[in-house]
Structure formats: structure tokens, C-alpha cells
Hints:
The protein is α/β, with parallel strands linked by helices. It folds into two domains: about 5-30 and about 280-410, Lyase, Ornithine Decarboxylase, Chain A, domain 1, CATH 2.40.37; about 35-275, Alanine racemase (TIM Barrel). Helix content is about 30%, strand content about 25%. It has helices at about 20-25, 35-45, 65-75, 85-90, 110-115, 125-140, 180-185, 210-225, 250-265, 275-280, 310-315, 405-410; strands spanning about 5, 10-15, 15, 30-35, 55-60, 75-80, 100, 120-125, 145-150, 175, 190-195, 235, 270, 285-295, 300-305, 320-325, 335-340, 350-355, 365, 390-395, 395-400. Strands 4, 14, 15, 16, 17, 18, 19, 20 and 21 form a nine-stranded mixed β-sheet that branches. Helix 5 crosses helix 6 (about 125-140) and helix 8 (about 210-225) runs parallel beside helix 9 (about 250-265). The protein is globular and about 70 Å long. It binds ligand LLP. Ligand LLP binds next to helix 10 and helix 11.
Amino acid sequence: xxxxxxxxxxxxxxxxxxxxxxxxxxxxxxxxxxxxxxxxxxxxxxxxxxxxxxxxxxxxxxxxxxxxxxxxxxxxxxxxxxxxxxxxxxxxxxxxxxxxxxxxxxxxxxxxxxxxxxxxxxxxxxxxxxxxxxxxxxxxxxxxxxxxxxxxxxxxxxxxxxxxxxxxxxxxxxxxxxxxxxxxxxxxxxxxxxxxxxxxxxxxxxxxxxxxxxxxxxxxxxxxxxxxxxxxxxxxxxxxxxxxxxxxxxxxxxxxxxxxxxxxxxxxxxxxxxxxxxxxxxxxxxxxxxxxxxxxxxxxxxxxxxxxxxxxxxxxxxxxxxxxxxxxxxxxxxxxxxxxxxxxxxxxxxxxxxxxxxxxxxxxxxxxxxxxxxxxxxxxxxxxxxxxxxxxxxxxxxxxxxxxxxxxxxxxxxxxxxxx
Length: 420
Ligand code: LLP
């Protein structure tokens, strides 16, 4: 459920017509609904009732300071994957003892930053990382709280580029070696082993891979316990999928039931790292039609948003529902159009053969389900400045990131001194 609905003939975010925002900030822009973010966080948390669970929002999904702050105010922790995200999470008032640092290639500087901020735990993904972390912690006179990320060799049945739990993927330590690596890690002087972590992929629309991974995790915990290790925390990662084009996806409560069935009685604190399921449906990318162009076989609606603003369609063949901001009248004729951006690549396409009422230049469209992995993945390709982000709460809206300017882009560039 989200809070983007037609009211009085116009698409609104909560009580604010998108047209009103477009007049203020111009297009394209991202628009988020605070009530939707809050609702999704609450639904996800409630799905874990009965478990000893901490929800650490995966900041990578949408790292706008205001978005993180809304979640922090609801009690969320944060899962971060870079020094930048750690800085953001702290700036958004997430307590350090609710922050987890994930990622396969953390640098010495990043590990040092995490240790100095005294965060809850660092999820380590390799033996070289363990050795480096031990050394860095030692040099700072600190102990590092560590969970080992295991690679459970489970196929998440999701898009190939976002499946992370198969043996051939770069993530985690092979589950068959965890027993040995855990024992070795426990001997390191500046490492304090606290548990295990997994994350098998993103946009999972089938619960079986979760079930299989959790069962594997359970088996590994039994082996480690038999060896005398105390396991304090299990991090189950994120990954729950959301409906992009109306296709059904498992609900948080169905997901919660799988956790309960597989790990409910394990007696160990659980951590979750949801990203997409919290913010995905809470955001739209609003764009204006620049031209409507006819060719022999196609009608193109050319928008002022492009692949650089929302990468998902071209990168993952993702299908995002698209709606006209002006409510279509009942019984209106629909026509099939290709909705494309202005970038000089055929991949700059948001949808093909998509049914819309007749569109004209100047009409606004909302590309839905763009709250996760939208603004955060944008680039300035074609020297297109990053677009603004707007947060709506009831009848108010606030620009939570300004539109970048071309001058800002140029400020970061210099001519070499041999060019006069
Ligand atoms: N934890 C870890 C360690 C992760 O790598 C990720 C996502 C998450 C949690 C959050 O997963 P979520 O609940 O959002 O599925 N750009 C892609 C998605 C990449 C996900 C990467 N890792 C997309 O637009 O589909």
C-alpha cells in the first residue's frame, strides 16, 4: 500500500498534488511519501513479532538524509556499505550501536572509521578482511565486533545481477569453510566474534530460497555451538521483493513466518537489513513529456527524465508502472506508446508498448516504485544534473535534495596546466 492516489482528477502524494510540486521544483524530480515509508517500516517490524529482532535499514536503497532520519525516528538501525553511508547514518541520528557495516571490499580507512565510531558490528566477508580488521583494531587499541558473512550457495531466483548467495558470487565465505574460518577468527587478538550474516540477493519474489538459506544457517550455528562458540547474533540480510508491475510478491508477514518456522526457536538475536521493501513503493520519479513523436511503427513519448535518473529499466530490464499525473477519464481511449528518455542510447527506455491515454507535450507522468535504487543510482551522464528529491508529509512538502547545477559539475573539473 502507498499514499499516491488520484484526488480531484490529479495524482497526489498524500495530500499534495504532484503538479504543485512540479511547478515549484520543475521536472524531473523524485517524490517520496513519509506516511508510506513509515507504514512499510511498521509492517515489516510487525511481521517479526515474536522474534528478538533489530531492523537495520539498508541505507543503499535510498540514502537521503531525511529518509534515513524518518526511519531512525521510528527506531530503525542502519546497514551501511561505505564510509559515506556510515557518515550519513550517523548524521541522520541512527545510534552507532544500531549500525552494521556490510560489504565485500571495505578499505583500511573504512574499517578504521567503523571501529572509531564503535558501531554494533562489522560483517566480514573474507580472510584477508579479517586479517586487516584485526590489524587496524590492534593499531587503534580497540576490539572489533564481527559477524562472518557466509555464502550459503543458494540461488535466490532473482535477476542475475542482484543474486548474491551462489557459490560463484563474490560475497561471503563458502558455507563449507565457515567452521574453520570462524575458529581461526576467534583466535585473533582484536576480533570479537559475535555471529553470522547472510544476504542472498535482492528483489526475491519466492520465499523458498530464504527458507533454504535460513535452514543452512541453522545447521552451521549448531556446528559452531558444538565447537563451543557462543553465537550472539544472526544477520539475515534483506532481499524481500516488492510488486513493480502488479505481479504478486510475498508479504512481509509471509516472510516473517518463514523466519519464525526456521529460526524462531534458536534463541539468538536476529538482525534484518531490508531496503527495497521499506522505501521502494514510497517513491515516484515525476517527469514531463517533452515531445510525442510518431514513427511508422511506434509512438514515442519522450520524457525529460532519462536512464541516468532511473537506471533500473536499462540495467535490470526492470518494469516500473507509469501513470499519467492527470487522472484518465473513465472509458478514455488508450494507446500503446514507448516511453523513452532523451539520452542517445536505445536502452534509454522506461517502457515499451505501454498503454496510456493520449499524451501531449507538457503532460506529467509518474514512474512508480522508484523510491529504492532510484535517486541513489543516478548519474550525471550527458551532463544532466542530479534531480531534486522531495519529501511529502500530509499537505506539506520539502525539497530534501536540491537540483544539482551544471556549474557545480564544472567546479570539480580543471584544465591541466599545459593547456593555456
Ligand atoms: N544487505 C546487503 C548486504 C545488501 O547487499 C543489500 C542489497 C541489502 C541488505 C538490501 O537488500 P534489499 O532489501 O533492498 O533487497 N540496485 C539493485 C538492487 C541491489 C541490491 C544490493 N544489495 C536494484 O535496483 O534492483
